[in-house]
Design a protein that fits this description.
With about 210 residues, the chain is α+β, with helices and mostly antiparallel strands. It folds into 2 domains: about 100 residues, Diaminopimelate Epimerase, Chain A, domain 1 (Roll); about 90 residues, Diaminopimelate Epimerase, Chain A, domain 1, CATH 3.10.310.10. It is about 20% helix and about 40% strand. It has 4 helices and 14 strands. Strands 1, 2, 3, 4, 5, 6, 7, 8, 9, 10, 11, 12, 13 and 14 form a 14-stranded mixed beta sheet that branches. β11, α4 and β12 form a beta-alpha-beta unit. α2 packs across α4. InterPro entries: Phenazine_PhzF-like.
């Protein structure tokens, strides 16, 4: 097996929680798509990233079952690991900025894979949800404090690939921000935190803390 590192992306304020991410720094060690898909399936993280050119920030992203042109938590994690100011994904070039403990990326909503955002009446209702059967990709959310822009969310990929719930999901947060057209602070899963902002030119910013697992 190729060498890889494990990061936790979108950690809580104390560095806790976050969604685990596998990163293969030497993408050439796993050279073709079939091998990369098998490697991502073996690791079993919600996403695994292969770095094809660290200087240019070129990356390739996989779930256990499919290749993704763009995903949020892999981009935030790899940008932190490489100290990059941009990443090149199959969907397009992702702008990056580093601000204190936060790494933030900018991307277009249309780059994100399709997700169904489903609003609930309270944060407690979201917290009590059972994992639904495989089917559509659901981002369940509710306002914690609507005037303050704080949200409670959970993510259910519904892919049947062994990942029943995503601890923190940047692409879904990006889509919700675009839908609501306002900046958000999202608590997802067990207590991971994502911060988002609406930017000029149709871009949405998604950021968070990254730690080594």
């Amino acid at each position: 097996m190729a060498d890889y590192e494990v990061l936790r992306v979108f950690c809580g304020p104390g560095g806790e929680h976050g969604n685990e991410l596998g990163v293969v720094r030497d993408g050439a060690a796993v050279p073709d798509e079939a091998q990369r898909q098998a490697f991502a399936r073996e690791l079993g993280f919600s996403e695994t990233v292969f770095v094809d050119d660290p200087e240019q920030g070129a990356i390739d992203i996989y779930t256990p079952g499919l290749r993704l042109p763009f995903a949020g938590h892999p981009c935030v994690g790899v940008a932190w690991l490489l100290g990059a100011d941009r990443l090149v994904t199959a969907a397009g070039t992702v702008r990056v900025r580093h601000e204190g403990e936060f790494t933030r990326i900018e991307a277009r909503p249309e780059w994100a894979p399709a997700r169904t955002t489903r609003q609930y009446g309270s944060a407690a209702e979201v917290a009590a949800l059972e994992v639904p059967p495989p089917g559509e990709w659901i981002y369940a959310w509710a306002w914690q404090d609507e005037p303050a822009g704080t949200v409670r969310a959970r993510a259910f990929p519904g892919r049947g690939d062994g990942v029943e719930e995503d601890e923190a999901t940047g692409a879904a947060a990006l889509l919700l921000t675009a839908e609501l057209r306002r900046d958000l602070t999202i608590t997802q899963g067990r207590g991971s935190q994502l911060v988002t902002a609406v930017r000029d030119g149709g871009f949405i910013e998604v950021g968070g803390r990254v730690r080594r697992a």
